[in-house]
């Protein structure tokens, strides 16, 4: 079975500072993908960043970057220069090996971390 | 660019009434389509996925059904809603053979 664990139910950061959200996972798949999604109060699930497990280089997207430690099965998200608009629930997610014809969509989600940004 | 829309955004329905949530994707062909549900304070649960017209796979047996009458249209339905069907429903898509899933705006369903 695949699991995703986010051990921080809530986090807080001062505007313009840096915060790191933790995520650990477990999977027996050799090929998988990891994601961070953001869910603001509007509830739309927005893709923040993704990481292919076969790539050693950590993914970055502007102010967002990950620290992917494959052996430790750790996938943390770092938000630099935090902005008020970053306040949201953040979900770490995992999807296993691709099935021919497309993904079966069985994203495994963590329980989320609620991030507050203080002005 | 690809976009996904779902509606209605908010729905309040009495127990026993039918349900229809609709989702369309633009800017891509033959997408994989998904319906997820998010209960309060929890992560997402995959309900249905489809890799083509008329091809529906159910992940969780329940009071709901899904249909894909057109390539880029995905519908979530119920003949008789239960209180336990209340929640936030998200339609999503991915490219054929892709593993990145993109979500729509979501629909709040309250069954009263």
Task: Report on the architecture of this protein.
The complex is a heterodimer of chains A (119) and B (112). Chain A is mainly β. Chain A contains no helices and twelve strands. In chain A, strands 2, 5, 6, 10, 11 and 12 form a six-stranded mixed beta sheet that branches. Chain A has a four-stranded antiparallel beta sheet with strand order 3-9-8-7, with no helix packed on it. In chain A, strands 1-4 form a two-stranded antiparallel ribbon. Helices cover 0% and strands 49% of the residues of chain A. With 112 residues, chain B is mainly β. Helices cover 0% and strands 57% of the residues of chain B. Chain B has no helices and eleven strands. In chain B, strands 2, 4, 5, 6, 9, 10 and 11 form a seven-stranded mixed beta sheet that branches. Chain B is globular, with a radius of gyration of 13 Å.
Work out the helicity level of chain B. Answer: under 10%
**Quaternary status:** heterodimer
Helical amount among residues of chain A, as a percent range? Answer: under 10%
- Tell me the radius of gyration of chain A: 14 Å
Largest β sheet strand count, sense and barrel closure of chain A: 6 strands, mixed
The structure class of chain B reads mainly beta
